[in-house]
UniProtKB/TrEMBL annotation:
<keyword id="KW-0963">Cytoplasm</keyword>
<feature type="domain" description="HTH marR-type">
    <location>
        <begin position="16"/>
        <end position="146"/>
    </location>
</feature>
<keyword id="KW-0804">Transcription</keyword>
<dbReference type="InterPro" id="IPR055166">
    <property type="entry name" value="Transc_reg_Sar_Rot_HTH"/>
</dbReference>
<dbReference type="InterPro" id="IPR036388">
    <property type="entry name" value="WH-like_DNA-bd_sf"/>
</dbReference>
<keyword id="KW-0238">DNA-binding</keyword>
<dbReference type="InterPro" id="IPR000835">
    <property type="entry name" value="HTH_MarR-typ"/>
</dbReference>
<dbReference type="Pfam" id="PF22381">
    <property type="entry name" value="Staph_reg_Sar_Rot"/>
</dbReference>
<dbReference type="InterPro" id="IPR036390">
    <property type="entry name" value="WH_DNA-bd_sf"/>
</dbReference>
<dbReference type="InterPro" id="IPR039422">
    <property type="entry name" value="MarR/SlyA-like"/>
</dbReference>
<protein>
    <submittedName>
        <fullName>MarR family transcriptional regulator</fullName>
    </submittedName>
</protein>
<keyword id="KW-0805">Transcription regulation</keyword>
Amino acid sequence: MPHATTFSGDHALKLDKQLCFALYSASLAMTKLYKPLLKPLGLTYPQYLVMLVLWEKDDCMVSELGERLFLDSGTLTPLLKRMEASGWLQRQRDAADERRVRIALTPAGLALRQDVAHIPACLLQKTPCTLTELQALTQQLQQLRDHLGAHVSPAST
């Protein structure tokens, strides 16, 4: 794949020329859009992401959840404990291997899915993009994430 060789010097060090800053600031803006939609339900944005994974695949290992969300157990465990206290999920040691913890939705966690069903449409209305444009952008970002992830050593995470 060819790389541009003209992106150097002072121009390359401008904040608004940084892909990392565009991604970071867009992520902050997106999270701010979610906050008022999730707050009435008692959900934070990271909790919403956990629920999205569990609605796709209930009764999974914490390690699977962490891989899917790109979170380590040190970040995920306190989050899951708060969600368990809210009654949305249960954590249980795996019978086959006590070191592993299973996560399963409770009836309240399953019911919460209906309460958030309107959120994707609300977010779509707040963007200047069509659904097709957002789907293409999502795919591009996933490809970028996967490509960048292939260049990250385990020691740097």
